[in-house]
Amino acid sequence: MKKTLLILLLSFFIIGCSNNKVIETPNKTYPSWFLHTQNIEGDRLNGFGEGETKDEAIKKALSNLLESIQSNVQSSISISQESHKDYIEFIEKNVKKDINVSTNVVQINNYSISQIEQLAFDRIIVKISVDKNIFLNTFYEEYLSLKKRVKNSSTNTLNDFMEYKELLKEVEDFKNKSILLHTFKRVSLNDYFLLLNHLKNNFHKLQKNVQLRLKTSDNLNSFKTIVLSKIKDLDLNIVDTNSKYTIDISSEVNDLHFNGFFISNNILTFSILEDNKLIKTTQFEYKGFSSSNFKDAFVKSLQEIDISFKELI
Q1: Bigger pLDDT: 32 vs 88
Q2: pLDDT value at residue 134
Q3: In which band, very low, low, confident or very high, does the pLDDT at 154 lie, cut at 50, 70 and 90?
Q4: What's the whole-model pTM score?
Q5: Which superfamily, per CATH, for 32-133?
């Protein structure tokens, strides 16, 4: 009996000691600002993220913000499908990639951390915010700058052609940003597409009127197609008759036979002329190797050409 009573007393003592010890239980409760997220609050665009480090949480918050913008952009696409059917396939395939790339830079430069908290289980949560007006103004100012550069060309010069070609690419690349601006009611899609079509029409007129005569040295006469195919972005009409502009391509070759190999050291000179007056001359050197003959080595040297027409003018 005494033995039993002693055991019971010891048991109560052990229980009492254990109850006096503080046992930490990790707090896994998220705050309300993280549980009930709002990606758009008035003039603020918000993103929410969680990670083991602050940088990881911010990165995920930026991604969350991008996804939110993407969701708004996608919903705006359906609104414009009826009046802009020609562009919908392009937009649906590319809008996410392009918007992610273009907005990411702006967010990195302009976001602020409005909430940050370290949870008890080694997790960090953050809320980042971007001023919607600053965010959109970056794209809107770019759009206004593009509009300002679009003009009716009264001349048919090679410079006009190159300027319009570059501008057309910039305006085409702006398509998805215009969707973004349309989503937040900054730019009408109709306004953007009218601008794009106006630019295309002017460019095609220049493309018809600005012709380029091709002239080559004798050793290139049989290889004109190869040489022209290697000049990137050459969108002009190439003619054999007299023209205001001429591209004169000559080749100076130094052949070498060494250890069973035929080597063609080919110096190509590209000259651009306007009314038979030299505008610019550019030289490039290419090497071709062959185990067969010098002609094969010469052709292989031409296949090494990798230039753009912009480099030549």
Answers
A1: 32
A2: 84
A3: low
A4: 0.66
A5: Acetamidase/Formamidase-like domains (3.10.28.20)
Span 170-196, average pLDDT = 85
What are the pLDDT digits (tens) for 77-119? 554 444 444 444 444 444 444 444 444 434 445 788 889 998 8
- Residues, the chain: 313
Please identify, in words, the CATH class of the domain defined by 211-312: alpha beta
**Encoded amino acid at 210, one letter:** V
Q: Which sequence spans correspond to the domains of the chain?
A: 32-133, 147-209, 211-312
β 277-290/261-274 pair status: antiparallel
Tracing tokens 């306007």 back to the chain, one arrives at: 274
Average pLDDT, the chain: 78
HSE value, Cβ hemisphere, 13 Å, CA-based, for 170:
16
